[in-house]
Amino acid sequence: MSPLRPLILSQPAVIAALVVAFALIVATALLGVVATREVAWNTERIGRAHETILTLQQVMTAVADAEAGQRGFLLTGDEKYLQPYRQGNERIDPLVLSLRSRLEGDSDKIAAMDQLAGLITAKRAEMEKTIALRGKGSIAAAINLTETDTGRSTMEGIRRVLQNLESRELRELNAQGEVLNERSKRFQYIMIALIGFAVVLTAVAGMLLARRIQELATMVTVCAWTKRVKWKGQWVSFEEFLQQRF
Length: 246
What we know:
Blueprint: H1 11-76, H2 82-102, H3 107-135, H4 139-147, H5 149-219, E1 229-231, E2 234-236, H6 238-245
Antiparallel strand pairs: 1-2
Helix pairs in contact: 1-2, 1-3, 1-5, 2-3, 3-4, 3-5
């Protein structure tokens, strides 16, 4: 009989097995909490990036709507075209303010926002001036001012800054998605390893306990009449059993 076999059912071994099992349960639970928080945090960051991209597009739409209303009024003199101009112009400031607050903490993006604010201010001044000239009947002066490269280059500058910011947000969004996928896979592998280790440990412990119980049952099989012990399929005297068994 191996001297290690009695250790299987000893109190220290049972306590050690319980401690290991409890540690596995706690580790798996903590890993699940960390993984959940990690996924939630990255999902929130991805959501903010999507909102930032949407705001960038809305700024461009607002400026384009204002310019379309301006050009419609210059060509027709119909004040109904001033409605989209005013609506677009009113949306610009809240959108730019919201966009700046979303980009706080990144000096390069804030510098781009400062450049964007200057370009938008110049574009709004150009549109306001041409509308004022057209309203006073100075059609030629208003059209001549519109046909200069100032308004076109300013609009292209606005579009370029917004596109650069959007491209950067998309790159960061893709990078965050890759990091999220990599960490999710890592957490999955670790949790699978812990669960597998727990299953293996439980199976081994069950097999050892079953063998030990079988051995104990064999050791105590004694005939009530002859007082002989059953050992390896034969009934032997207690003295023979002790000699052969131990």
